[in-house]
Amino acid sequence: MTDTQPDPSLLQTVAASSSPPVEPAAALPRAWLVVGPLVVQSSATLGVGLAMLVVGLAAGFLLRPLVTRPDAPASAQSASANTAATAPAGPAATVTGGLIAAAETAQAAEQGRALMDAVVGQTRHFRGSDTATVTIIEYSDFQCPFCGRFATETLPQIEDEYIASGQVRLGYQHFAFLGEESRWAAEASECANEQEAFWVFHDLLFSSQAGENQGAFSKDKLKAFAVGLGLDADAFNTCLDSGRYTSLVAGQTQAAQQLGVRSTPTFLINGQPVLGAQPFDVFSRYIASALTP
User: Fold this and answer.
1) Domain span at residue 62?
2) Those residues with Cβ within 8 angstroms of residue 273's Cβ, 6 or more apart along the chain or in another chain
3) Reported pTM
4) How many domains does the chain have?
5) Which of 116, 174, 218, 271 is deepest in the core (most CB within 10 A)?
6) Model confidence band, residue 49 (pLDDT cutoffs 50, 70, 90)
């Protein structure tokens, strides 16, 4: 699976509002959530409902551009271009266009904050300080090779430069869409989390990729990983075999789909979408922009 360029609907729900849960309970009763013309059936987690709330918050901005570099915001350029094309010439038109652009920017920022608050509230795993100025939420699949590239090459640089200093924290959300081994790996990471080993298991999974659904993340292999990490094998095996986290993983994946996620890895940096396994310098520019008052 590659990090193909996503369909423009990807995080239009999210990107329009630029500027991220809890020990699993018993499965929630099946329910229907209605948001405007949309009807969504959820049987797993509160995350789906909350995601649809975010969809409603961002619905007015669906036509905005998705991803922009912090040094060249396409949305601002697009707004200015549209204003220039339709407004009459002259100083008054310039002032009016500027006010409209400023109002749209402020509204987008407000929706971005609401989006990030909702997503953070449904994120179970964080790396870094709770008081970090910048929060990055990653939507990822343990079998995705480009997610593996980010985890093994770019994330260590972000950790050394920003997470260790308390400026940035990283949150992880499951988007397990590449097959049953993706789902098993995600569930296994949650079982490891019961023994406070989510991140070490996360790192081991990404460093152990060997193709999609080729047996690298079979249940037997996942159990062997737990043994190798010194986890309580009986507790881990019982957790994995029981499907304790099947609903949670499915719910997070569905919630991400409702937000518009279509490929992995996908990131939100203080509400700003970044798509694909970008190099460290790209993340650094986004982070620097988010750290600037």
Assistant:
1) 1-293
2) 10, 11, 14, 15, 18, 66, 67, 266, 267
3) 0.67
4) 1
5) 174
6) very low
